[in-house]
Amino acid sequence: MASDSKSVAAILTPLKGRDYLSNGDFTSQETLALLELSSQLKSGKRRIDLGNRVLGLIFTKASTRTRVSFQVAMARLGGQIVDLNPQITQLGRGEPLEDTARVLSRFCDAIAIRTFAQEELVKYAYWASIPVINGLTDLEHPCQALADFLTMQEVFGPLTGQTLAYVGDGNNVAHSLMLCGSLLGVNVRIGSPKGFEPMSEIVAQASRLAVNGACIEVFNDPIKAVEGAQALYTDVWASMGQEDEQSSREEAFQGFCLGSELLAQADKEAIVLHCLPAHRGQEITSEVLEGPSSRVFDQAENRLHVQQALLAAVLGGL
Ligand code: CP
Ligand code: NVA
User: Fold this and answer.
1) Count of CB atoms within 10 A of residue 75's CB?
2) Which of 121, 194, 282, 295 is deepest in the core (most CB within 10 A)?
3) Minimal-distance CA residue to ligand 2 atom 7
4) Which of 18, 46, 67, 114 is catalytic?
5) pLDDT given at position 277
6) CATH number where 276 lies
7) For residue 315, is pLDDT > 80?
8) Is 235 considered catalytic here?
9) Terminal-residue alpha carbon distance, the chain
10) For the chain, percent of residues with pLDDT exceeding 90
11) Quick one: pLDDT at residue 262?
């Protein structure tokens, strides 16, 4: 267990130079230690200065939280970011990823990437000689899940045995919640309409990774998914790149809106989480998003703290 800064450092030091493409890339102990370091950085108990390190950001999709939290995290670590938006680099004119990754490795100390295919991210990691971090793909959103479980830990204490229920699309966010939750001993229940369940390979991987008896379950009935849960979570019904499916998805997801009826089925102390941006009146009601159970802005803030911890670990600042 990573209970003090010495053991946290001992656990995280070997992560220097590593990629973080998936929550499954780190062990249970490493994930727990990252959350501990995140808390220490957040409270001011720990300060880390990496001294002039540079993070490149290659984002092919829109972002507010991920982009800004990486930028601020690097600033707090004494470093900076370089914006490598494909529209302003030769990537947008077709320069091969293989060449781009090798060139950027000569200038930057790490790269955070937001893109569509996980395979593209894996290819960057193969060609780059510096750490590559997943800033969201269609398959996973690992930094988001770290922030989500830090938020849950802040409210409820030790995560083992807690239950998080996600209602909605079995997408990137749901996948990362299952993988990260299983490593932290959290029971993760996904409630999705038929045809929108998470990938069975990820469900199987999460079940294999599960520690302390954590249970990963998928339901088509949102009420069954949320019963007694300590955290209720949802995300947009149409993710970035799925805009054309917006209206068919709105129809398919009827009954899966996170509103007061679903909240009433959860634990009476349950908190509400959403990765944001939110569509009030679709996947979540305004009443619940703005209500007393909502922790969505603490959750958004925690992106900064977990990414600062992650950067410190992979850049070798411990
Ligand atoms: N939750 C999240 O990743 O937000 P952004 O799309 O604004 O980065
Ligand atoms: N599932 C959403 C998450 C946004 C943070 C998307 O991929 O667009």
Assistant:
1) 12
2) 121
3) 239
4) 114
5) 98
6) 3.40.50.1370
7) yes
8) yes
9) 17
10) 97
11) 98
Tell which one of 116, 140, 172 to mutate to probe ligand 2, the residue whose CB is within 8 A of the most ligand atoms.
172
Whether 171 lines ligand 2, by a CB cut-off of 6 Å, is yes
Verify whether residue 303 is a known catalytic residue.
Answer: yes
Burial 174-208 (b: 16+ CB within 10 A, else e): bbbbbbbbbbbbbbbbbbbbeebbbeeebbebbee
Give per-residue pLDDT as tens, 189-233: 999 999 999 999 999 999 999 999 999 999 999 999 999 999 999
Catalytic residue among 18, 46, 65, 141: 141
How many angstroms does the Cα of residue 64 sit away from the middle of ligand 2? 11
Q: Are 155 and 78 in the same domain?
A: no
Instruction: Tell me how far the alpha carbon of residue 109 lies from the centroid of ligand 1, in angstroms.
Output: 23
pLDDT at 179: 98
Say how many domains are in the chain.
2
| 243-255 mean pLDDT | 98
Q: Is there a catalytic annotation at residue 254?
A: no
Cα separation, 108 vs 169, in Å, equals 35
Q: Which domain holds residue 125?
A: 5-140+303-314
Encoded tokens for 138: 């269609």
Residue 238 beta carbon below 6 angstroms from any ligand 2 atom? no
Are 212 and 276 contained in the same domain? Answer: yes
* 99 is known as an active-site residue: no
Residues with CB under 6 A from ligand 1: 63-66, 136, 144, 275-276
Q: For ligand 2, atom 2, which residue shows the shortest CA distance? A: 239
pLDDT at 3 over 70: no
Instruction: Summarize pLDDT for 47-97 with one digit per residue, the tens.
Output: 999 999 999 999 999 999 999 999 999 999 999 999 998 889 999 999 999
Whether residue 136 sits in one domain with residue 155: no
Residues 306 and 151: their CA atoms lie apart, in Å, by 10
